[in-house]
Design a protein that fits this description.
Order of helices and strands: HEEEEEEEEEEEHEEEEEHEEEEEEE
CATH architecture of the largest domain: Sandwich
Strand content: 35-45%
Radius of gyration: 31 Å
Number of domains: 2
Number of helices: 3
Number of strands: 23
Helix content: 10-25%
Distance between the termini: 79 Å
Shape: elongated
CATH topology of the largest domain: Jelly Rolls
CATH class of the largest domain: Mainly Beta
């Protein structure tokens, strides 16, 4: 065969192979885009602004705007929404966490730097894979004027991107957006909440779990000593579900329990050389430590134990540091508690729990 003929055939085959390879590469890039387009086109989640009931209004004195947003029942991944205000013909907004499927949520915004809004609208933001897509924007809803009597714990600023809120102080620290010890907003349980973060102690990243009240230093029972839990648990600022959400992404927990006493043994009894009266502790999830023994069954350190003197006439302290992911402590069990002059309590608000 003629060599020139062979060369022409080889060249033709090579051109065909290159063309096929090129088409394959192009389709490999296009097909995922087409698939993603179909996925986005099938999104059905909808939101709407609820104007009835007075929950969507503007308070001119406080310069606050309140917007109630309803989300229809859906199975889509809608982690955030964009709320947009129209002020003097210009649009300003923020991205905030979306309501849960089928629920309604109220958002409060500080408009002190913008003026009175004319209307508001909402855009759902969906997530498919690693890509975000804006859904159908709602129609503009006129803002009525009213009085906001109760200001929400979270007041959003316009221009903020609150959908990127972290779930704990450690996530804030790891993301490199810490500005030191102080109050930060985190996203837990479907809501944005404010918590205090310790960003310095032992490397930082500690989320503080506060108590609402102290345990009063009083006499609680008479009629003789017996093992008793307090009739109600300690109240925390965050809900149990919110605390458990933080616990679920934490690996460390700590709390100092500072017990005050007048004649109430907390750990050791020096006169009888015994631990038979040592307190028991209940954690948030219901687990309890051992009681009436020297080893409570958890990682703890006795910092001070003056209650061992069992002196009814002097207010003394027993202080324990407990290291356990199950903190906060929500109740205590005591036995040396049944005399009229026997009193005990704890400065809970000064000794919060910490999770990291």
């Amino acid at each position: 065969m003629n060599k020139r003929g062979i060369s022409a055939i080889v060249a033709t085959v090579l051109i065909i192979l290159v063309t096929v390879a090129g088409v394959t590469i192009v389709w490999a890039a296009i097909i995922p885009l087409i698939q993603q387009s179909f996925e986005f086109s099938e999104l059905e989640g909808r939101v709407s602004v609820v104007s009835s009931g007075g929950y969507t209004s503007y308070d001119a004195d406080k310069k606050l705007a309140m917007v109630q947003v309803k989300r229809d029942v859906d199975d889509e991944v809608m982690e955030s929404i964009k709320i947009l205000f129209s002020v003097n013909g210009s649009s300003f907004g923020s991205s905030v966490p979306a309501p849960e499927s089928g629920l309604t949520k109220v958002y409060t915004f500080d408009l002190s730097d913008y003026g009175e809004p004319d209307s508001v609208k909402v855009v759902p933001i969906f997530v498919v894979g690693n890509t975000e897509k804006e859904g159908s924007v709602t129609s503009d809803v006129r803002m009525s004027k009213g009085v906001i009597s109760e200001v929400a714990d979270i007041v959003y600023e316009l221009g903020g991107d609150y959908q990127t809120l972290r779930r704990s102080c450690l996530e804030i620290l790891d993301a490199g957006v810490s500005v030191g010890d102080g109050v930060y907003d985190i996203f837990i349980g479907g809501d944005s909440v404010s918590v205090y973060c310790d960003m310095t102690t032992d490397g930082g990243g500690w989320t503080r779990i506060d108590f609402v009240n102290d345990l009063p230093h009083i006499n609680r029972w008479t009629g003789g000593d017996t093992w008793r839990w307090l009739p109600s648990n300690f109240e925390t600022v965050l809900s149990s579900n919110q605390i458990q959400a933080i616990q679920s992404i934490s690996t460390e927990g700590k709390q100092r329990y500072d017990g005050t006493c007048n004649g109430v043994l907390h750990y050791y009894f020096v006169d009888w050389n015994t631990y038979d009266y040592s307190f028991g502790f209940r954690f948030l999830n219901g687990d309890v430590t051992s009681n009436g023994v020297s080893d409570l069954g958890v990682d703890f350190t006795i910092v001070l134990d003056d209650c061992k003197n069992n002196n009814n006439n002097v207010l003394e302290h027993t202080i324990l540091d407990i290291n356990d992911i199950r903190v906060p402590i929500v109740n205590v069990m005591s036995q040396d508690n049944g005399g009229s002059g026997e009193m005990f309590g704890s400065a809970l608000t000064a000794n919060p729990a910490w999770l990291r």
